[in-house]
Amino acid sequence: MAALASAGSSEEASNDVGDIDNEWWKTAVFYQIYPRSFMDSNDDGIGDLRGVLSKLSYLAETGITATWLSPIFQSPMIDFGYDISDFKAIHEEYGTMEDFEELIAEANRLNIKIILDFVPNHSSDQCEWFIKSAAREEGYEDFYVWADGHINEDGEMEPPNNWQSVFYGSAWTWHPERGQYYYHQFTAEQPDLNYRNSKVVEAMDDVITFWLDKGVSGFRVDAVNHLFEDPELRDEPLSGKTQDKSSHLYTEHIYTKDLPEVYDMLYHWRNLLDEYTEKHGGPARIMMTEAYADFKFLMDYYENADGSKGPHFPFNFFLLTDISQTSDARDYVFNIQKWLTYMPRNHVANWVMSNHDNPRIASRLGVDSVDAMNMLLMTLPGVAVTYNGDEIGMQDFRDISWEDTVDPPARNVGPDKYKEVSRDPVRTPFQWSGEKNAGFSNADKTWLPVHPNYEELNLEIQKSLEKSHYSVYKDLIELRKLPVMEQGRTALEVISRNVFTVTRSLKGQSSILTIINTSDEEQMVNLLEVLDEDIKQLTVLVSGVNSIYDKGTEIPQEDFEHFILTPQEALVCMIE
C-alpha cells in the first residue's frame, strides 16, 4: 500500500498577492553558496562577494530563485567565518559592504533572494563583546558563559566539569585576565554567548534587524540546538562509546544540547521576522535552522502545542545522515515518510542531501547516483536544498595533503587521523571550466586545492553536452513549476527491495511518477503494482545521463509489467 502525505501546503492556489509573497519559499530551491570556494574576482585564491555577484546570472539561467551564503562576516577565520568578530561587517577577504549592497541590488533585479548564515551560538574571541566581558566591563560581565574551575588532588586547576568541545578536547578554556574558564562548544576561539542574559538577546535581535534593513530575505541559523546549556554546570553522563575523554562522543550531551529553552529563542526570532515583514511589507522574511538533533525535538521547532511558530523549516538531514551506499528502497521510503508523518500539518517539508560539512552526493552515494538523487530531491514535496557543485556532480577531493589541510577539527586531531574528520574535501573550489584552477581563480595557489578531475568534470563541458548532470538539474527545476509539483499530494511506494516510486498528484492535473533504482545492478519491476489499470502510457520528462530512455520517450502499457531500470537509474514520467 502506498504511503500518502500532503505537500505541506494547500492544494488550492491563492490569488492574493500578499499570500503569494509570503509563500515564495514553500517550493523554492535554496542553493547554498560557500563563498570562499565559489568564485574569486581578484585572484587572491579566495572566493569573494564580487565573485558571487559575477555568477548571479548563472543562478538565474539555471532557475535558482533563492541562495544561502555561508558566513561572510568579519572573522579571524579560525573556523572560516563561523567565528565572527563583528556581526555587522563584511570580512575583508570577501569584499566591502558596498560589494554586498551591489550584490543585493543585482539579486533583486534577477529575482533571486539572498539568505545569510546567522551564527548566534558564539562569537570570535576577538569580538569586542568578548574582550569587554573578559575585562568585566559593565553591561558585558555575563555576555558569555564564565565559571570558576576547581583544584584537583594534585593541586592543579581543572575545568568546571567534563563537557567536551564538538571539535575535540575540553569545552572550557582558562582566561588569565578574567581568572575564570569560559565555555566554547566549538574551538577555543569561539566562546559561547550566554542567552540567559537578555542583553545578548537584544544584541542579536539588533544584528538580525541590521541585515534585514540591508535587504536580505532571511537567515539560515547555525547550530541552534547548542544555544543553551545547564546553568548548574552538571557533569554529563558517560556514553560508553569511547574511552577518549577528549572526544565529543565520551559523554551523553543531556546538559549541552537540545535544551527546552531553545524553543523559546526560536519562537522569539520567528516573531521578530514576522513583525518586520508586517511593518515593512514585501515577501516573507524566513528562517531555516541547522540542528543535528533528536527527531521529535526538531518537529517542535515548527511550532508548539500553543501555536507559537518557530523556523519556517528546520533542516531535514535524514537523507544525508541515515542514507548510505548500502541503503535500499525501504530505507529511502522510511526516512522520507518519517519526516512527512511527524511534521505538523500545514507546514512544509525540506530535503538536504549534502552541504559544506558533509560528503557530496557523488562521493557518499556513488558517481552514478547523482541524477537519481537530484530527481528525488526535486520531486519530493516542499523545499529542496542544493549545495553548490552538486548540480554538476562534483566530488570530494579526499587526497588533500596534511600541509594543505585547514579545517579546525582536522588540524586538532593531527596528521594521522585528519582525513577521518576533515571537511576540506567537500569545500574545494567550484569547477567552472577546464581552465587554470577550474576557472575559479587565476592565483598561483588557491585557499584549498582544486579537485584534479576538473578538466573532465566542469560546468562548461556539461553546458556543451546534449545530456549532462547540469541539463538534468535544469529540467528538474523547470518541472517544479508545475502545479502538481507545487501543490500536489505525495505517495511513496516500495516496489522491490531496490526500487521505489514517488507519485505527485493533483486534481485536474496529470500525475508525475519518479522511479528510482537504488542498486548497482539492473532491475526489472512490475509497474502495474503501482499504476492503475486505465493508465495507457508513461511519458519520460527527465532521464539521467546514463539512462536507456530519452526525454520524450513514450512507454506503453504493455511494457509496464517487465520494466527495466539500469543500475542507479531514475526517471521522472508523466502518467497518461
From TrEMBL:
Domain (Glycosyl hydrolase family 13 catalytic): residue spans on this chain: 32-427
GO MF annotations, alphabetized: alpha-1,4-glucosidase activity
Signal found in the keyword field: yes
Catalysed reaction, written as an equation: Hydrolysis of terminal, non-reducing (1->4)-linked alpha-D-glucose residues with release of alpha-D-glucose
UniProt record, GO biological process: carbohydrate metabolic process
EC number: 3.2.1.20
Matches recorded under CDD domains: AmyAc_maltase
Protein name from the UniProt record: alpha-glucosidase
PANTHER family: ALPHA-AMYLASE FAMILY MEMBER, NEUTRAL AND BASIC AMINO ACID TRANSPORT PROTEIN RBAT
Organism: Musca domestica (House fly)
Keyword Glycoprotein: yes
Chain coiled-coil ranges: none
Highest taxon listed in the record's lineage: Eukaryota
Residues spanning the membrane: none
Keyword line: Glycoprotein, Glycosidase, Hydrolase, Signal
InterPro entries registered for this protein in UniProt: GH (IPR017853), GH13_cat_dom (IPR006047), O16G_dom_2 (IPR045857)
Similarity field: Belongs to the glycosyl hydrolase 13 family.
One Pfam family linked to the record: Alpha-amylase
